[in-house]
Specification:
Blueprint lengths: L6 H29 L34 H10 L2 H8 L11 H13 L8 H5 L2 H7 L7 H9 L3 H20 L18 E2 L17 E2 L3
Antiparallel strand pairs: 1-2
Length: 216
């Protein structure tokens, strides 16, 4: 006999779960703030870091992932329609063996989100079983394949990809209530950037850092 949970029950259970998670996170935050509070105390006779009885074990079922939110980013790209827009408008392959255009685009983006600094770091991602499982992928493009994908781009392809991203952005913004658009806040900051005294003519020079400019 099958049992179907009603929509009202699912909503109530979801609310309870969110409240429980919020309570746990708030308690953890409270403990950490209390722990790191800079309060006076007696002089220590030994260093702060004293752990000694440390053991590491490999679990059969539980696995860890440093880029823990990567699966959420994939769901965001799918639920906002970004993946569909990329595959519908950006045409770089006649056949998909096995990757689609969106696979390549997200592969490069997710590499950056996971801490990658260069395209070669994709090799670390594709050899991480937990990372692949988080994306539900059998495999992802290697650095050479990703580089070949990038070289296929013309100026028109770049514009097409930008348009797909912008269309997705508009859909996300359209979900905001009308009151959201009544006020816009611009957070602007200045940064001192060193120029190595390469070119000083016509540049306003701060007295604290010779050879630097301050962008506005």
């Amino acid at each position: 006999m099958s049992h179907t949970i009603s929509k009202k029950t699912r909503k109530r259970n979801g609310r309870k779960t969110r409240e429980r998670n919020r309570r746990i996170l708030n308690e953890r935050k409270r403990r950490v703030l209390k722990r790191i509070e800079n309060r006076p105390g007696p002089e220590r006779e030994e260093p702060m870091m004293t752990a000694s009885n440390i053991h590491y074990e490999l679990a059969d079922r539980v696995q860890g992932l440093s880029a823990g939110g990567i699966g959420a980013m994939l769901l965001l790209a799918r639920n906002t329609g970004l993946i569909k827009d990329i595959d519908s408008n950006l045409v770089l392959f006649k056949r998909h063996l096995p990757y689609h255009e969106s696979d390549h685009v997200l592969n490069i983006a997710f590499n950056i989100l996971a801490g990658g600094k260069r395209i070669e770091h994709l090799e670390l991602r594709r050899n991480d079983e937990v990372y692949l499982n988080a994306l539900g992928a059998q495999r992802i493009p290697d650095p050479t394949t990703a580089g070949d994908f990038c070289r296929r781009f013309s100026e028109a392809h770049v514009v097409t990809l930008m348009d797909a991203i912008n269309e997705t952005r508009l859909r996300v913004w359209s979900q905001q209530p009308h009151e959201f658009f009544e006020e816009a806040i611009l957070d602007v900051d200045g940064t001192i950037v060193g120029t190595d005294a390469e070119r000083k003519q016509g540049v306003d020079m701060p007295t604290t850092a010779p050879g630097a400019i301050i962008p506005c």
